[in-house]
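hey team, just a heads up i'm posting the complex here instead of the shared drive bc the drive is being weird again. everything in one block, sequence lines first with there labels, then the predicted structure for the whole assembly after. its two chains so it's a bit long, scroll down
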Amino acid sequence: AQSVTQLDSQVPVFEEAPVELRCNYSSSVSVYLFWYVQYPNQGLQLLLKYLSGSTLVKGINGFEAEFNKSQTSFHLRKPSVHISDTAEYFCAVTRPKAAGNKLTFGGGTRVLVKP
Amino acid sequence: DVKVTQSSRYLVKRTGEKVFLECVQDMDHENMFWYRQDPGLGLRLIYFSYDVKMKEKGDIPEGYSVSREKKERFSLILESASTNQTSMYLCASSPQVPLRTEAFFGQGTRLTVV
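-- predicted structure starts here --
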């Protein structure tokens, strides 16, 4: 079974400052990793995913994440945030080739961007 | 664009009522999921289905059942609603294709049980 821990439940940040959201996972097998974003009153939208290959993954809206197998981490970063990045962010894992491709999510990190 | 549509954005039901939450996807995806979202707990999987008439329990199936009679439709049923089932419910779908494991989510149904 997999599990995901998002180390910060809330992250306040000033506009144009960098932000890092931390995600650690636990799994006895290799995994695929995802970051999703949920804007207020909306469903989840995929930001980026790591399946294989380069450990640095670029996503939409200027976000990127780095897969670190030895530290079992998949931290999300953005060098300069905008007010519109205020949202909740979820890290998730799934097992490759698992029937159903079910995702296991972390508890979420709420980002509040201040002017 | 992939569309996952949940039948209601907001629902208010009474304790003991039978509640149906409906979800339809238009991309011919094999997999469909029901998650429950609560503050601080993230999304927890209730049930999922990887084929018509197939269903598997997720992490928190107690008090819920599901139905998948057609590929595009996945229903979540609360047999006898209770106040601790007040929550946001999210439906998702994904293809069963290698390296295309992205799940697409509906807008969510906020259910209040009074």
